[in-house]
Amino acid sequence: PVQRIDIVSIFPEYFAPLGLSLVGKAVASGLLAVDVHDLRDWTHDRHRTVDDTPYGGGAGMVMKPEPWGEALDALVDPEQPPVLVVPTPSGVPFTQALAHEWAHEPRLLFACGRYEGIDARVMDHARTRMQVREVSLGDYVLNGGEVAVLAMVEAVVRLIPGVIGNPESLVEESYAEGQDGLLEYPVYTKPASWRGLEVPPVLLSGDHGKVDAWRREQSLDRTRARRPDLLAAEGAVADAS
Ligand code: 6GU
């Protein structure tokens, strides 16, 4: 499982929330080390410059290769290289399957780009010594990789054995195995009547077979309405109608 996570960013303050909640507890319990580094620590000029204009022209700025090269030299142990994760809207989609894969890796290093991205030679050079994964959270644009890394770290850390008290809560939810790749059904708690709205009576019936059948139907209805792409996908539920 993951033992250490390094994060390099020009905005290390973005990662204060990692001290809270689930990730903070995993770190406090000694299950995991998370270290956040300021990319500008690997600059040498007075202005601590990390970007420059793009070769070939065009809008925006590109992150210079030298600070990234020095950061990776300093943080990567060649005997135990990490998986280098580079968040970018032009990456492959980040999925629960990737979160599971990474939860088994001893070391992860997240490299947060800003501006129009990182000089591509940084990833090309890194690929000669470690696995590099350029990944995207979805089809929209964030200003930098920081928010994406917060999401990915949380998705990975909650899968580390011992981090979540009740591992059963992991198997039932959306995208987990045992759900046939369907979205989760709606959930209810007390009171049974609230603002004139009733909890579906089947959930109060005590008939577990009926409850399971109802939840399955709700999952299918939701998936058809919200994520029809999941039903078309290979490995999705056979009897989707
Ligand atoms: Cl991973 N990074 C950035 N900068 N924007 C994104 C993204 C990642 N995923 C979606 N938009």
SSE topology string? EHEEEHEHEHEHHEEHH
Q: Number of folding domains?
A: 2
Structural class: alpha/beta
The CATH class of the largest domain is identified as Alpha Beta
Oligomer: single chain
Strand order of the largest sheet: 2-1-6-5-7
CATH topology of the largest domain: Alpha/beta knot
Head-to-tail CA distance between termini: 39 Å
Number of strands: 9
What name goes with the CATH superfamily of the largest domain? SPOUT methyltransferase, trefoil knot domain
CATH-level-2 architecture of the largest domain: 3-Layer(aba) Sandwich
Number of helices: 8
The percent of residues in helical segments reads 25-40%
Low-confidence stretches: none
How many whole angstroms does the radius of gyration measure?
22 Å
Average of per-residue pLDDT values = 93
The biggest beta sheet reads: 5 strands, parallel
Q: Please state the overall shape, judged from the principal axes of the Cα atoms.
A: elongated
Listed once per kind, the bound small molecules are: 6-chloroguanine
Protein name: tRNA (guanine-N(1)-)-methyltransferase
Enzyme class: transferase
Function: Specifically methylates guanosine-37 in various tRNAs.
GO molecular function: tRNA (guanine(37)-N1)-methyltransferase activity
Quick recap:
Helix content is 31%, strand content 17%. It is an alpha/beta fold and 241 residues long.
